[in-house]
Amino acid sequence: MKYLDEFREAKRAKQLVEEIRKTVTRRWVLMDVCGGQTHSLLRHGIEEALEDYIELIHGPGCPVCVTPIEAIDLAQRLSMRPEVIVTSFGDMLRVPGSQDSLLGVRSRGGQIRSIYSPIDAIKLAQELPDREIVFLAVGFETTAPATALAVLQADRLGLKNFSLLVAHVRVLPAMEGLMLLPDNRVQGFLGAGHVCTITGLDAYKPFVKRFRVPVVVTGFEPIDLLYGIREAVRQLERGTSELVNCYSRSVQPAGNLSAMKAVDMVYRVVDMPWRGLGVIKEGGFALNDRFQYMDTQRRFVDAIELPIHVETRCRSADILTGRIKPTACSEFGKTCCPEQPLGAPMVSSEGACAAYFRYQTRILT
Q: Strand, helix or coil at 240?
């Protein structure tokens, strides 16, 4: 039965590819803003199959990739203090800061631990009451609720040795920023299904109305993505711009109300620096007044005087805005590879450069 299901799915995928090819009268530009979608488009050959019909470009869909260098540098500095243990997700450990990665600093004695959940950081704070546990909190709206719940739990437990270095970012303001760029070429978006599961479909209505571009929310499987691409192309060919949900099995109009309630209880929306993109208006979260006592930067005020760092060799800004494909970077696959990355897009499991290195390095040969 599994074989028959896979056969039917492959057959349907081929049909959708043909439908898309027959629909287009010009080469349209669509952007996905989810690293999971980027990897799936490449892994399953969708981008290659539609290359002559649609230009698929990949936006800032990787939260690890847009975490500010300054946050990484601060985490590194704090980890060298004898009383501090810095915790974060495994993806973050290899992301370069201005001089080194968290993994590199750990090899020189920095107290840095990889965890799977912010609750793990809470447990560590309980186990080691004489140490300061710092959680480097990164991610889109998908991970912000889990961190919010950890804050609420730490507050209930009365933990005094737990704090957060918050680098949570919001997808919709980044999309707005992309549309306002003078050289923007995006004609339609494949919306990130996992983010919309939390925020809800309706959150994107003002965006579609303002910018008059199709936004089609999709999942991550090949069929999901092809349905989304077909819908976006149909709209572009008709000259319409609508918000369409092609991931209704997970995304609802209002989203996950419980998750958003937790976020609203813990955070406030702030302007946020995104790595490679600069400060995005209302582009992230910060702890609200009630939970400011858990703010790492407030707790360690003597450790936050760090210079603003601008990347030079890594072309992350051009990659995250879809100006170039990773393979157009002169460093790609040469001086920049997963083992020795120049920037975050080559490190993260959701990074566009990592996806192209894994699935399309044959382009270079």
A: coil
Looking from the CA of 163 toward its CB, the CA atoms found within 13 Å total 21
How many Å apart are CA 137 and CA 182, to the nearest integer?
A: 32
Whole-angstrom Cα Rg for the chain: 21
Q: In what order do the strands lie in the sheet with 132-139?
A: 112-114, 84-88, 132-139, 162-168
125, 293, 135, 267: CA torsion to nearest 10: 130
| Ordered domains of the chain (ranges, CATH) | 64-171+255-303 (3.40.50.11740)
How high is the pLDDT of residue 311?
Answer: 55
| CA-closest candidate to residue 296, choices 78, 76, 66, 65 | 78
DSSP code per residue over 119-170: HHHHHHHHH-TTSEEEEEEEESTTTHHHHHHHHHHHHHHT-SSEEEEEEEB-
112-124 residue pLDDT tens:
999 999 999 999 9
Cα–Cα distance, 229 to 270 (Å, whole number): 32
- Report the residue count for the chain: 365
User: 216: phi > 0 → left, psi -120 to 50 → alpha, else beta; which?
Assistant: beta
Instruction: Tell me the pLDDT band of 308, cut-offs 50, 70 and 90.
Output: low
Residues 6+ apart with CB under 8 A from 242: 208, 214, 215, 235
The Cα 96–Cα 353 span in angstroms is 14
Q: Give the full edge-to-edge strand order of the sheet including 243-245.
A: 54-58, 28-32, 188-192, 215-218, 243-245
